[in-house]
Write a structure and sequence with these properties.
Elements (H helix, E strand, L loop, with lengths): L4 H13 L12 H4 L11 E8 L7 E7 L4 E2 L3 E8 L2 E2 L8 E12 L1 E3 L5 E6 L5 E2 L2 E9 L7 E12 L2 E9 L6 E3 L1 E2 L8 E11 L6 E11 L10 E9 L17 E11 L2 E9 L16 E5 L5 E12 L11 E5 L8 E5 L13
Parallel strand pairs: 3-14
Antiparallel strand pairs: 1-2, 1-12, 2-4, 4-10, 5-9, 6-8, 6-11, 7-10, 11-12, 11-13, 15-16, 15-22, 16-17, 17-20, 18-19, 18-21, 21-22, 21-23
């Protein structure tokens, strides 16, 4: 269940006070349970349409588009178009079907199945069509690193029994549906990159930013019980989605705290490490550390751990005081790739086994 805005603010405050020590293991799994778990599909984006002519009496429609919250370059995804209830001017004398065609302009991908699609059944003597959906397959351009955008334009509605008589709908909206690109990863070499979407808050509760970081994780190759091991973390901003320091008021210390969530081994819930950012200037981008960060932890039992990127925080490493901090929580948890490695009992040499 998603946390309320107020609930997330409480978690932000709690986690800020918990940034103590250079490298620690959060046994209580604070940053794991506070990370909102979202569905693999992003929230639908709604477009307003005006309609006239043809067999339907609707003069205005709210049409929504939905897609996954991330997709890999070179792959395809389903774009779902949700169309509300429709009303016919004249009831058909025999059963038929309603059809819909939506003209779409993609950037960073292509759509080939542009023919009219079946929307729903219409019984003989009926004048209503229940809400329905149509689906388009979008092929993402191989090698692309920028987001895929979909811009809808003309929507046409018809009955299969009179396919040339059309109700034409248009929108004046200039918005687009955006699908982020997750760039590879999850291979057999134990490394991978994920586009992680964050909601960052701070120093004030009203300072909220949407940030995207391409996170590269490298799994340990010889983790053993009772011995500290490290997951390597490297982050790069998505252009246009960087984190900025507050323009006024208190500044943020030039230090980043990165986290990874771990499951599968009892008592092993997270690993964390810290790195130094570039100089922080009011109103400017807070640069990410150029060096790879070691997220360290220790396991007390053997087993296979599953790893995902987790929170990142910005602030001072201090055990006392109320130093301001910016705290960033993952928003697309379920869409992120998983990585695995084995913790051995010290008698062998485990190997990493990342899985997408």
């Amino acid at each position: 269940m998603l946390l309320s805005q107020a609930g997330r603010r409480l978690v932000h405050t709690t986690s800020a006070l918990g940034l103590m020590g250079t490298l620690v293991v959060f046994v209580c799994s604070l940053f794991i349970v506070s990370t909102p778990a979202t569905a693999s599909a992003a929230a639908p984006k709604t477009f307003a349409y005006t309609c006239d002519g043809g067999p339907f009496t609707n003069t205005s429609l709210s049409v929504s588009l939905s897609a996954p919250d991330s997709v890999a370059a070179g792959q395809s995804f389903a774009l779902t178009v949700n169309i509300p209830a429709l009303t016919l001017q004249t009831a058909p004398t025999t059963a038929t079907t309603a059809q819909a065609t939506l003209t779409l302009t993609p950037t960073g991908g292509t759509i080939s199945d542009t023919a009219a699609k079946t929307l729903g059944q219409v019984a003989a003597g009926a004048t209503s069509v229940t809400p329905g959906t149509i689906t388009y397959q979008v092929a993402v351009t191989a090698g692309t690193t920028t987001n895929v955008t979909i811009k809808p334009s003309t929507l046409t509605l018809a009955l299969a029994s009179a396919a040339t008589t059309l109700t034409s709908c248009s929108t004046t909206s200039t918005e687009v549906l955006t699908v982020p690109i997750g760039t590879g990863g999850g291979g057999g070499d134990g490394t991978g990159t994920d586009l992680v979407q964050y909601e960052c808050t701070g120093p004030a509760a009203t300072d909220i930013q949407d940030v995207e970081i391409k996170v590269e994780l490298t799994m340990p190759t010889s983790a053993k019980i009772g011995e500290q091991f490290a997951i390597k973390w490297k982050g790069t901003y998505t252009a246009g989605k960087e984190l900025k320091a507050p323009a006024t008021g208190q500044t943020v210390a030039a230090r980043l705290f990165a986290y990874a969530s771990l499951t599968g081994i009892t008592g092993l819930t997270s690993a964390t490490g810290e790195g130094v950012t570039g100089a922080v200037t009011a109103g400017q981008i807070i640069t990410l550390p150029t060096a790879t960060i070691d997220l360290k932890t220790t396991a007390s039992t053997a087993g296979t751990a599953t790893v995902k990127p987790a929170a990142v925080n910005f602030g001072a490493n201090t055990a006392t005081g109320t130093t301001p901090a910016i705290e960033c929580e993952v928003q697309n948890t379920t869409a992120l790739k998983e990585y695995r490695f084995t913790v051995g009992n010290g008698t062998g040499t485990p190997t990493p086994t990342p899985t997408p």
